[in-house]
Amino acid sequence: MESLYKQVGISRQGFHKHRSKISAQAHLEEQLVQRAKHHRQTHVRMGARPLYAMMSSTEPDAFLEGIGRDKFEEILIGNGLSVQPVRIFHKTTYSGAFRFPNLVEGLEIKGLNQVWVSDLTYYRLLDGWAYLTFILDLYSRRCLGYALSETLITEQTTMPALKMALKNRGVQSYDNRLLFHSDGGGQYYDKGFLGLLSQYHIRSSMAECVYENPHMERFHGTAKNDYLIPWGVNSVAKLRKELPRFVYLYNHIRPHQSLNYKTPVAFEQFVQQIPLCQRPLVLFKKLT
Q: What pTM was estimated for this model as a whole?
């Protein structure tokens, strides 16, 4: 063996050191893949980059130290853990005849409680359909309110979702500085719903089409295609159990690329500690 080492120009010690390094790297990669698979049991369709950000902040040790984001992504792809996009083409909302003007297109958003966005979506069950209503703060992407219903009446959809959002924020009056942006569904211009908005001095804004409320379309895709459907949620009972779990994961655990890989709750805490003039700016624009 000594003559072989001399022929290839390395020492015995160097050879064994190199072999140990390769073995350690392979072991580290195997551990990384196993931990990624563990997180994917919950975040079934989370991409490599947000998964890297989440693991960097939640792993109890310095496991990812020395492994960059690109290397992490390369390892996941090499082990068959890439995520393919899911495209949904069917329309999920239908607008009524009345509509408020779109007040948010082109708006520069610099803080919380400036624009809330909302929409209803259908969710297929084994024996029919359920309906989900969500409300997000557009600046932080935080889900402030939600409702699950088996009918489309206002008292079971937009009204409880709005009441939850108002309770979570705890503001008595928004002094007409908050815009509530939605599609033109009848639940959003119901007399009782508009009365509650008026009570808190919130102005209504409505989209002409789904392209003028793109953040909700993406959110619906995340909720259904990345969590609820992969979790096997196919009954109202399961939906009632898993919907709060999804909202918690979305708000507190899942990093968002648009928030510099912070979670919505962490982003809200971050922006409230810096001056308004230094806060990130969000421009509301429709998809084209």
A: 0.76
pLDDT in tens, 93-152: 444 556 789 999 889 898 999 999 999 999 999 989 999 999 999 999 999 999 999 999
Residue type, 51: L
- Collapsed DSSP state (helix, strand, coil) of residue 107: coil
Residues belonging to the chain? 288
Helices (H), the chain: 2-8, 12-40, 48-58, 69-78, 158-169, 191-199, 214-221, 236-248, 264-271
Residue-level pLDDT at 80:
72
Cβ-Cβ contacts under 8 Å for 257 (sequence gap 6 or more):
49, 50
Across 20-39, b (16+ Cβ under 10 Å) vs e yields eeeeeeeeeeeebbeebeeb
CB-CB contact of 271 with 259 (8 Å):
no
- Split at pLDDT 50, 70, 90, the class of 199 is very high
**Measured CA angle at 220 (ends 70, 280), to 5 deg:** 55
Among residues 200, 181, 203, which one has the least CA distance to residue 116? 181
Structure tokens at 213: 């409320």
The residue with tokens 């003007």 is: 101
